[in-house]
């Protein structure tokens, strides 16, 4: 199938190879702040935004509850694994991490079940509602989630003497998860499932008439996106060392949407690009405009992207590449004919 | 006798307005049947009810002996029912090949597979065969948006032929086609395997009467005649409808 062979035949491999080498080499020329606070956090938020890209960009389902899934995965990790929570089961990470991801994925499937029969703005409203419900659920439930204070002491494991809380090892764990998630999504959107998902996005009625159970397809997509967000959520819990209701708050939910839109929803790399821009703005724009006006600046960037490039920064990149390809070569005139020098005649 | 499609007393109303009124019609396996009638007669509504896009107010629909009145659309399709749409509902940004592939996979159990298929997978081979059958090999890699209207219609039919269809509902497949494209369409329909039955809604009588064995004429949500093509053209009530001498209830004025 041509849609499957695109990636194999394309020169994108060169781009991917150089990108991967740069990401692997990044800790060797960046300090710990840039490795941990910028690099690792961008990869984590990029993964959560990737889950939204899959849902919204390829499935046409704009879900605001992806951060809720990530946050819940963090809570489940704190409850199952090693943390300061008195109610924690203190299970080994090899059990606690998969258990947290699976449980959060089941929650994502349930959220999907609630929202898949809606379209457009109604999907946004339902996922916003379940996201807000999740926030109040963890904030008001003191027995399990410790209310406003949340759960702390969530630390990554130490494996073969390597403490994964250290910036560089943690960066590489985040990078490995992000690369695997990215490759999985790229493969998924070219698979029969992914082609059908894009068909359902474009024309659900037609897909039903081709024999597809579109609601089941959408719920499974929510589950897959949930697993991606949950993996990001586990890493985020390790990154912060704690989980609290703020992680699943409306601000955090909107941030993921902003990240995905700034990067671009029509390519899996968009979430990661958006996350880098967002984290850089979050860390350095405060020095320029002050902490009170950080959101104003993010809002302005969001506004400009939506107005001038609805496909995000990836869309800007594509436009520049297309412009460069279409630009006539120096040796050609405006009609595309080769210019013959007088001396050549 | 088990009919391919058996529709009994099918009625659908929207508030006070009855669009289809106790329509009863049967189609045998392999039968080629045309449904004619003026705009607003309820032909496409009948198709939408048969495929499950709409739910009837009353009446039953059986497909090869299975009561599918309350069955979801995708399950009816998996039983062997197919349809094309009056206005093209293709995936314009995908290639011809991907459109056909989506149709081939739709009725297969592996439609949820999350890994790409190899080039020698049976579904990939079936896709190529189907592209050949609807004469779209030369444009297989083109996006649908770049196809002519006639080619889009051919693609619609190709998608309806995916898998092992038992019965196809064709909603105005010749609409907007050039004379040459119409000839191609007739050849395509005549070349369908004899075991595949179809019902065609068509305003072009030359095409409709050429490819079918039986014709049903509808007007104002009711069936007013069901005869062979030779008889239907002589039917005075049908002539009256097409000559515009009937009232709004479908009754002929003498």
UniProtKB/TrEMBL annotation, chain A:
<feature type="transmembrane region" description="Helical">
    <location>
        <begin position="296"/>
        <end position="317"/>
    </location>
</feature>
<feature type="transmembrane region" description="Helical">
    <location>
        <begin position="269"/>
        <end position="290"/>
    </location>
</feature>
<feature type="transmembrane region" description="Helical">
    <location>
        <begin position="242"/>
        <end position="262"/>
    </location>
</feature>
<dbReference type="InterPro" id="IPR001851">
    <property type="entry name" value="ABC_transp_permease"/>
</dbReference>
<feature type="transmembrane region" description="Helical">
    <location>
        <begin position="210"/>
        <end position="236"/>
    </location>
</feature>
<feature type="transmembrane region" description="Helical">
    <location>
        <begin position="62"/>
        <end position="80"/>
    </location>
</feature>
<keyword id="KW-0812">Transmembrane</keyword>
<feature type="transmembrane region" description="Helical">
    <location>
        <begin position="12"/>
        <end position="29"/>
    </location>
</feature>
<protein>
    <submittedName>
        <fullName>Branched-chain amino acid ABC transporter permease</fullName>
    </submittedName>
</protein>
<dbReference type="InterPro" id="IPR043428">
    <property type="entry name" value="LivM-like"/>
</dbReference>
<dbReference type="InterPro" id="IPR037294">
    <property type="entry name" value="ABC_BtuC-like"/>
</dbReference>
<feature type="transmembrane region" description="Helical">
    <location>
        <begin position="170"/>
        <end position="189"/>
    </location>
</feature>
<feature type="transmembrane region" description="Helical">
    <location>
        <begin position="35"/>
        <end position="55"/>
    </location>
</feature>
<feature type="transmembrane region" description="Helical">
    <location>
        <begin position="121"/>
        <end position="138"/>
    </location>
</feature>
<dbReference type="GO" id="GO:0015658">
    <property type="term" value="F:branched-chain amino acid transmembrane transporter activity"/>
</dbReference>
<feature type="transmembrane region" description="Helical">
    <location>
        <begin position="92"/>
        <end position="114"/>
    </location>
</feature>
<keyword id="KW-1003">Cell membrane</keyword>
<keyword id="KW-1133">Transmembrane helix</keyword>
<dbReference type="Pfam" id="PF02653">
    <property type="entry name" value="BPD_transp_2"/>
</dbReference>
<keyword id="KW-0472">Membrane</keyword>
<dbReference type="GO" id="GO:0005886">
    <property type="term" value="C:plasma membrane"/>
</dbReference>
Automatic annotation (TrEMBL), chain B:
<protein>
    <submittedName>
        <fullName>ATP-binding cassette domain-containing protein</fullName>
    </submittedName>
</protein>
<dbReference type="InterPro" id="IPR051120">
    <property type="entry name" value="ABC_AA/LPS_Transport"/>
</dbReference>
<dbReference type="GO" id="GO:0005304">
    <property type="term" value="F:L-valine transmembrane transporter activity"/>
</dbReference>
<keyword id="KW-0813">Transport</keyword>
<dbReference type="GO" id="GO:0015188">
    <property type="term" value="F:L-isoleucine transmembrane transporter activity"/>
</dbReference>
<keyword id="KW-0067">ATP-binding</keyword>
<dbReference type="Pfam" id="PF00005">
    <property type="entry name" value="ABC_tran"/>
</dbReference>
<dbReference type="InterPro" id="IPR003439">
    <property type="entry name" value="ABC_transporter-like_ATP-bd"/>
</dbReference>
<keyword id="KW-0547">Nucleotide-binding</keyword>
<dbReference type="InterPro" id="IPR003593">
    <property type="entry name" value="AAA+_ATPase"/>
</dbReference>
<dbReference type="GO" id="GO:0015808">
    <property type="term" value="P:L-alanine transport"/>
</dbReference>
<dbReference type="GO" id="GO:0016887">
    <property type="term" value="F:ATP hydrolysis activity"/>
</dbReference>
<dbReference type="GO" id="GO:1903805">
    <property type="term" value="P:L-valine import across plasma membrane"/>
</dbReference>
<dbReference type="GO" id="GO:0042941">
    <property type="term" value="P:D-alanine transmembrane transport"/>
</dbReference>
<dbReference type="GO" id="GO:0015192">
    <property type="term" value="F:L-phenylalanine transmembrane transporter activity"/>
</dbReference>
<dbReference type="GO" id="GO:1903806">
    <property type="term" value="P:L-isoleucine import across plasma membrane"/>
</dbReference>
<dbReference type="InterPro" id="IPR027417">
    <property type="entry name" value="P-loop_NTPase"/>
</dbReference>
<dbReference type="GO" id="GO:0005524">
    <property type="term" value="F:ATP binding"/>
</dbReference>
<dbReference type="GO" id="GO:0005886">
    <property type="term" value="C:plasma membrane"/>
</dbReference>
<feature type="domain" description="ABC transporter">
    <location>
        <begin position="5"/>
        <end position="245"/>
    </location>
</feature>
């Amino acid at each position: 199938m041509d849609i499957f062979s695109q990636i194999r035949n394309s020169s994108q491999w060169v781009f991917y190879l150089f990108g991967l080498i740069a990401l692997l080499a990044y800790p060797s020329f960046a300090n710990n702040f840039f490795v941990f606070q910028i690099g690792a956090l961008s990869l984590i938020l990029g993964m959560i935004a990737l889950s939204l890209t899959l849902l919204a960009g390829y499935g046409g389902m704009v879900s605001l509850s992806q951060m809720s899934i990530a946050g819940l995965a963090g809570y489940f990790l704190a409850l199952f694994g090693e943390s300061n929570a008195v109610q924690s089961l203190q299970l080994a990470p090899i059990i606690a991490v998969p258990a947290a991801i699976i449980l959060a994925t089941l929650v994502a499937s349930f959220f999907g079940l609630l929202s898949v029969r809606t379209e457009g703005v109604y999907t946004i409203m339902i996922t916003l509602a379940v996201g807000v419900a999740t926030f109040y659920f963890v904030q008001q439930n003191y027995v399990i989630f410790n209310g406003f204070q949340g759960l702390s002491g969530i630390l990554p494991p130490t494996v073969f003497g390597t403490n994964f809380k250290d910036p560089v090892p943690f960066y590489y764990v985040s990078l490995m998860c992000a690369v695997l998630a990215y490759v999985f999504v790229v493969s998924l959107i070219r698979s029969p499932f992914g082609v059908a998902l894009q068909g359902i996005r474009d024309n659900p009625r037609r897909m039903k008439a081709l024999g597809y159970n579109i609601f089941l397809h959408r719920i499974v997509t929510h589950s897959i996106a949930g697993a991606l967000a949950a993996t990001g959520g586990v890493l985020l819990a390790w990154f912060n060392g704690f989980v609290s209701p703020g992680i699943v708050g409306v601000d955090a939910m909107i941030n993921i949407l902003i990240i995905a839109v700034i990067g671009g929803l029509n390519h899996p790399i968009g979430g990661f690009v958006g996350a880098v821009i967002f984290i850089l703005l979050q860390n350095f724009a405060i020095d320029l405009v002050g902490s009170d006006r950080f959101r104003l600046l993010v809002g302005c960037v969001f506004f400009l992207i939506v107005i001038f490039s609805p496909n995000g920064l990836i869309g800007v990149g594509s436009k520049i590449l297309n412009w460069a390809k279409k630009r006539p070569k120096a040796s050609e005139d405006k009609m595309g004919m080769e210019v013959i020098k007088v001396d050549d005649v | 006798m088990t009919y391919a499609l058996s529709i009994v007393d099918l009625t659908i109303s929207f508030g006070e307005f009855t669009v289809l009124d106790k329509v009863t019609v049967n189609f045998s396996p392999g039968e080629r049947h045309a449904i004619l009638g003026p705009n607003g007669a309820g032909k496409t509504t009948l198709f939408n009810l048969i495929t499950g896009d709409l739910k009837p107010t009353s009446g039953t629909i059986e497909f090869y002996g299975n009561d599918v009145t309350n069955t979801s659309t995708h399950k009816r399709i998996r039983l062997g029912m197919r349809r094309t749409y009056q206005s093209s509902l293709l995936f314009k940004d995908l290639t011809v090949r991907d459109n056909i592939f989506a149709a081939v996979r739709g009725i297969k159990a592996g439609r949820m597979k999350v890994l790409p298929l190899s080039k020698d997978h049976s579904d990939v081979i079936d896709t190529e065969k189907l592209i050949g059958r609807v004469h779209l090999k030369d444009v297989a890699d083109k996006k649908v948006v770049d196809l002519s209207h006639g080619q889009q219609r051919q693609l619609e039919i190709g998608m309806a032929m995916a898998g092992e269809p038992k019965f196809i509902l064709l909603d105005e497949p010749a609409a907007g086609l050039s004379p040459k494209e119409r000839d191609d369409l007739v050849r395509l329909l005549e070349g369908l395997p004899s075991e595949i039955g179809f019902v065609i809604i068509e305003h072009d009588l030359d095409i409709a009467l050429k490819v079918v064995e039986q014709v049903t004429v509808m007007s104002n949500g009711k069936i007013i005649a069901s005869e062979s093509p030779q008889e239907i053209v002589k039917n005075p009530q049908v002539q009256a409808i097409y000559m515009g001498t009937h009232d709004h209830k479908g009754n002929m004025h003498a």
